[in-house]
Write a structure and sequence with these properties.
The complex is a heterodimer of chains A (380) and B (277). Chain A contains 14 helices and two strands, in the order H-E-H-H-H-H-H-H-H-E-H-H-H-H-H-H. Chain A has a two-stranded antiparallel ribbon with strand order 1-2. With 277 residues, chain B is mainly alpha-helical. Chain B folds into three domains: 36 residues, no CATH class; 150 residues, Cytochrome c-like domain (Cytochrome Bc1 Complex, Chain D, domain 2, Orthogonal Bundle); 33 residues, no CATH class. In chain B, strand 1 and strand 2 form a beta hairpin. The chains are: A mainly alpha (380), B mainly alpha (277). Chain A: One of its GO terms (molecular function) is quinol-cytochrome-c reductase activity. Chain A: Its cofactor is heme; heme b.
Chain lengths: 380, 277
């Protein structure tokens, strides 16, 4: 094992083998590891898919069908990649909500959290761009709706949209640059993830009790490597159920119709993992306002380390927060449901109430709760 | 003191949880009924049919694919193309190689240019795609009153309800209820979004004569052609489910090994006793 003390290999040793880990972190702490596995799966399958894919409006859809029908195990590669995106978001959402429950974002890990929000933003862009590549109806029209949001920017909005498209509509130039960006962004996500990890390892992981992690630490290997691998096996089985038994359950049938600029689908729905944000976007009856609200819904997460006003981290010792936390989960689920519904009553009103609650929760309830908890802690 | 206050907060928290559960239940009761979700293009939801291949471990019914291909060739193919299916795809699925070669040789395919730069006709080969009824979209629209019969290669994956929808659509033709005016050249079918479809009813009892002697009723033909089209959309279906069984089986066994390993490695820490002096 002297080899592991050499330069470069010592990085592996210091971060994956001898790395001191709090003994009491439980299975909710598996999801960071799972997210890195998802990223690796997406990059590997993506590289092989790109060998058979053609980014041209006349050929993209046909090349996907070529992958599905004629490439050996092409269907497997593509179903892993398309369902893998959903799995990645499931894992990352659990990872984020674990952070919210145990206040993992508090100092000294505030920058880990901020970098995490940046990774989440990059993931959203990458997933959206990737959904355009098969060039089905939902690809084209989803891309048209979402890129059009940029036109809400005052004065220069329309020019920016034309610049983004590389033309006057979502067309071949757009598809080409989206393919290029979809290949590039995962590597930027990888870099950001490594920074996420490096900054995390400065102070080490938090733990479910929210106390000083340095009290009781054990080495990463074998304890947490085995624990992570056990979680990975459960994840692989869950993932396989989708790939092998209902590979299109998370997709939309319209994306198996080749893109046609002359025919608009009856309902333009984004992928399920965007639905809560889509609901916030549509809840505001003003284009620019909606776009600002949607982006703020993500950015507001980055403010959490400074919103959090109490010394206590873990929800185990914060009964009021624990209750409010579940209202937040319900709020996100309701928003997700509304995002998939047509713009009609009563969905519009429910969506607006949920959107208001979302921001009210982060910008008003949480700071107030922090103040109350701080007051109670110091109360004698 | 502080802990008493915390405890006094428990009741309001439970009350709040209960009221939010009540609110949630109310919202749930207001959940959209399927017809509401598609309000602007209203259509009847197809009934759920227990297909021989719908179970997790079931493969396609090869005899049904074979009969379904007969229905497609004799009925559907006069208007609908299947551009992504070649004759070779049928080999080993529902036909032998000799049968498919014979079928392919029955058609004329335009090929070329030859050494003299001329296009020529030759008998079909295994690698040729199934012949399309129209040379281009314009011809298809012109022959069909302006409507375009969609390509059927992916139709099952491209429609909500998949095979169930196809079966319901093919057997769902009926007289329009009173008060609904069906436009000129359209036909009433409650399963089609909007209820009016440009395709006339195509399947009547006895429209094809099955070579295996099966009674060619409307619902039998609809079932067979839906199975054939389901196969065309997902030719990897049988292999996929088989692999899934192997994959999940293998990882389940691995899971128990890993569970043992994890518990074995952790046993020391899990059984330690801390003493504070």
């Amino acid at each position: 094992m002297r080899l592991l003390k050499r330069p470069i290999l010592s990085i592996v040793n210091n971060h994956l083998i001898d790395y001191p880990t709090p003994i009491n972190i439980h299975y909710a702490w598996n999801f960071g590891f799972l997210a890195s596995i998802c990223l690796i799966i997406q990059i590997l399958t993506g590289i092989f898919l790109a060998m058979h894919y053609t980014p041209h409006v006349d050929l993209a859809f046909a090349s996907i069908e070529h992958i599905m029908r004629d490439v050996n195990y092409g269907w497997l590669l593509r179903y892993i990649h398309s369902n893998g995106a959903s799995m990645f978001f499931i894992v990352v959402y659990v990872h984020i909500f674990r952070g919210l429950y145990f206040s993992s974002y508090t100092k000294p890990r505030q920058w880990v959290w901020v970098i995490g929000v940046i990774i989440f933003l990059l993931m959203i862009i990458t997933a959206f761009i990737g959904y355009v590549l098969p060039w089905g109806q939902m690809s084209l029209w989803g891309a048209t709706v979402i890129t059009n949001l940029v036109s809400a920017v005052p004065l220069v909005g329309d020019s920016i949209v034309t610049w983004l498209w590389g033309g006057f509509s979502v067309d071949n130039a757009t598809l080409n640059r989206f393919f290029s960006l979809h290949y590039l962004l995962p590597f930027i996500i990888t870099a950001a993830s490594l920074i996420h990890l490096a900054v995390l390892h400065q102070d080490g992981s938090g733990n479910p009790l929210g106390i000083d992690s340095n009290v009781d630490k054990i080495s990463m290997f074998p304890y947490f490597i085995y624990k992570d691998l056990l979680g990975l096996l459960v994840f692989i089985i869950f993932f396989s159920l989708f790939i092998y038994f209902s590979p299109n359950a998370l997709g939309h049938p319209d994306n198996y119709i080749e893109a046609n600029p002359m025919v608009t689908p009856a309902h333009i729905v984004p992928e399920w993992y965007f639905l809560p944000f889509y609901a916030i976007l549509r809840s505001i009856p003003h284009k620019l306002g909606g776009v600002v609200a949607m982006i703020s819904a993500i950015l507001v997460l980055a403010l959490l380390p400074w919103i959090h006003g109490t010394e206590i981290r873990s929800s185990r010792f914060r009964p009021v927060y624990r209750f409010l936390y579940w209202t937040m989960i319900s709020c996100c689920l309701i928003l997700g449901w509304i995002g998939g519904m047509p713009v009609e009553d009563p969905f519009v009103l429910i969506g607006q109430i949920a959107s208001v609650y979302y921001f009210f929760y982060f910008l008003f309830i949480l700071p107030l709760l922090g103040k109350i908890e701080k007051f109670l802690l110091e109360f004698e | 003191m502080a802990s008493a206050f915390w405890r006094s907060l428990t009741l309001p928290a439970v009350a709040a949880a209960a009221s939010s559960a009540a609110a949630g239940a109310t919202l749930f009761s207001l959940r959209p009924r399927p017809t509401l979700a598609f309000a602007d293009d209203e259509a009847l939801h197809p009934p759920h049919i227990n297909w021989p291949h719908s179970s997790y471990l079931a493969s396609f019914d090869a005899a049904a694919i074979r009969r379904g291909y007969e229905v497609y060739r004799n009925v559907c193919s006069s208007c609908h193309s299947m551009n992504r299916i070649a004759f070779r795809n049928l080999v080993g699925v529902a036909f032998t190689e000799e049968e498919v070669k014979e079928m392919a040789e029955d058609i004329e395919v335009e090929d070329g240019p030859n050494e003299e730069g001329l296009m020529f006709s030759r008998p079909g080969r295994l690698s040729d795609i199934l012949p399309a009824p129209y040379p281009n979209e314009e011809a298809a629209r012109y022959a069909n009153n302006g409507a375009l019969p969609p390509d059927l290669s992916l139709i099952v994956k491209a429609r909500h309800g998949a095979e169930n929808y196809l079966w319901a659509l093919l057997t769902g033709y009926r007289d329009a209820p009173q008060g609904i005016n069906v436009r000129e050249g359209l036909y009433y079918n409650p399963y089609f979004p909007g209820g009016q479809i440009a395709m006339a009813r195509a399947l009547y009892d006895g429209a094809v004569e099955y070579e295996d002697g099966t009674d060619a009723t409307t619902s039998q033909m609809a079932k067979d052609v839906s199975t054939f089209l389901a196969w065309a959309s997902e030719p990897e279906h049988d292999q996929r489910k088989k692999m899934g069984l192997e994959w999940i089986g293998a990882f389940s066994i691995l899971f128990f090994f890993m569970l043992y390993m994890k518990r074995f490695k952790w046993s020391l820490y899990k059984t330690r006793r801390l003493e504070f002096r």
